[in-house]
Amino acid sequence: MGAVHRTPEGVVTTYECKYRELGMHLTATITREEYVVNERIVERSSLGVVWTCSFEPDATGTTLTVAWDASTLMKMLDAVFYHSDKDIDTELATFKREVEALA
After folding, report:
1. Domain boundary assignment for the chain
2. 3-class DSSP state for residue 50?
3. Per-residue confidence of the chain (103 residues) as pLDDT tens digits?
4. pTM attached to this predicted model
5. What is the 3-state secondary structure (H, E, C) of 55-81?
């Protein structure tokens, strides 16, 4: 994780993710485009990927839904090299565990 920028109220506006790909050290800047408390967060990466996280109350607590959109090229690269869709259940379980640990 790199620099994190917040409003005076503490709401995150941008942050940097540092990662390695093909042996190179890279940084992506993530900009928060929409923040609706207890409902939705929309973020755009400097790589062009847009993530939407939606939160809905349910009988056991909260349901988190994650969707992403990107250019056709980015979707093709994901399908060929990364297959991020097959990891989503593990990622959501990890996210849930970490959030619950904060409570």
Report:
1. 33-102
2. strand
3. 789 999 999 889 999 988 887 888 989 999 999 999 889 999 999 988 999 999 898 898 888 888 889 888 888 887 787 777 677 788 778 877 887 887 6
4. 0.74
5. EEEECCEEEEEEEEECCHHHHHHHHHH
